[in-house]
Amino acid sequence: MEQFVSYLTIFLIAVFVGIEVINRIPPLLHTPLMSGSNAISGITIIGAILTLHTTNHWIIQVLGFLAIVAATVNVIGGFVVTHRMLGMFKKKD
Amino acid sequence: MEKAYINLIYLISSILFIVGLKLLSHPKTAVRGNFTGAFGMFLAVVGVFFEYGTINQSDIIIIGAAILVGTTIGTFIALKVEMTGMPQLVALLNGLGGLASFLVGGNSLMEILQPGHDTKQLADFQFTISTAATGIIGAVTLTGSLIAFGKLQGLISEKAVRYFGDQIVKVLFLIGALYLGYLNVTEPTKIEWYWYIVLVASVLGVLLVIPIGGADMPVVIALLNSYSGLAASATGFVLGNNVLIISGSLVGASGILLTQIMCKAMNRSLPNVLFGGIGAATSSADSGDIYAGKTKSTSAEEVAMLLDMAQRVVIVPGYGMAVAQAQHAVRELYNQLTDKGIEVEFAIHPVAGRMPGHMNVLLAEADIPYDKMKEMDEINPTFNTVDVVIINGANDVVNPLAKTDPGSPIAGMPILDVDKAKTIIVIKRSLSPGFAGVPNPLFIQENCLMYFQDGKKATQEIVTALKDT
Lengths: 93, 469
Fold this sequence. Notes:
- The complex is a heterodimer.
- Chain A is mainly alpha-helical.
- Chain A has helices spanning 2-23, 30-41, 44-51, 58-88.
- Helices cover 78% and strands 0% of the residues of chain A.
- The longest helix of chain A is centred in the C-terminal third of the chain and has 31 residues, at 58-88.
- The model of chain A has no long low-confidence stretch (mean pLDDT 90).
- Chain B is an alpha/beta fold.
- Chain B contains 18 helices and 7 strands.
- In chain B, helix 5 (125-153) runs antiparallel to helix 6 and helix 5 (125-153) packs parallel to helix 7.
- The model of chain B is unreliable at 278-285 (pLDDT under 50).
């Protein structure tokens, strides 16, 4: 329970930090923000890698493999496409 | 490595994510922000290998192969996608995030159930409840996103699919998922419950998104973005890992914030978007009667003459422009007008397009300088100094009924005040109503000219006509 409350604290503080930071982002950049933050949600890759730990059961390995693939597509796809988009917002004189 | 050092690595990557998002707030620093975020992710992955400890060869092969496959697919689709297809891609990536999350939840549970593992975690409510939450949120995110993808890609009807008693069915599935979640908590040794949760929540995801119409997509995409973050955060609670909790909640917060902005831009509440309102089979009055004989149609030549005499021109892009892929033609028009010394700006309604900020990306793709793209609040007070406003494929966001008719489905929605401009040109293929299904009295206004044509063709014809003047 104690552990849970401390995780919950971290969660809520991060939500508030997130709102503060993102609130200042102009509508111009909302799409890159979405694809960029989307890439960050691929952080599940950490969890996916960890669940393969100390187990050799094949179902876990298959599902773990799938989870890592899905999370990596999310991460790489998100960051690359955001980079592509931002390249278009360069200042033109 | 000691756990404290690993957590320190995770802490640094969390901070990099926050800094990265902060840098995304200005076009000048945004590229750096994206790199910062990507570096944070890299660092987190480095951290997880330290946490893993001694890694046996078969694990290296599985992890390495999975990362390689994921990187190849991710890079390929990110480089291939057209800017008009951006909402689909974001929907798809959201869905994959959800998939990864519920797989991680299931795997964590199964791992503990393996013989020889410490089962005391199963008595821990934090673990079991958050596993159930991961299953529900992850699965809803996956199937909801797939439906959104299908709608945006035109694989499924963009229309709001409603049926009798649909709200009750949704509630039943939600209760079902929650009940299975409860069983997962009370009988965590039965792994079946977890997969039933995923199954029921998957159906729920479909049911939640299918009744939402095309024009509400900006809200849905933003909301699913938030869900994918919450799913990641829930896996953080399962695994007791701070970097997952922090990054997931950042994404969750960003999604919710954008959802709120989109709802505000349409003057609607979130429940109203999710559970009906406009888009729900609003049978419109026969708009033909309203327009009958009162609209004036125009030609490229006439528009060119009007533009030639103008000093200030504003272009209002809408989804029609995006569908017609007219952004490059619009850029040509922009070039030509600015060459003649005419001031040209773009008025962008927050919900124009299929995701937040979509129109800005499309215009930027066509090399239109971002300082010419004006937000609604900025440009609205200046419309009375505009000589010609060209509305390209936008409809509801310029409908004055939003202000004048409290009974209209779009009542109270903030609109672009184009009616104050000297001359209004509406490029539209027909007089068919927009998403909201209401006629637009702007079209019969004294100073409004209708140019019935596809958004791209019309723009090209104006460009040609301008060359001849």
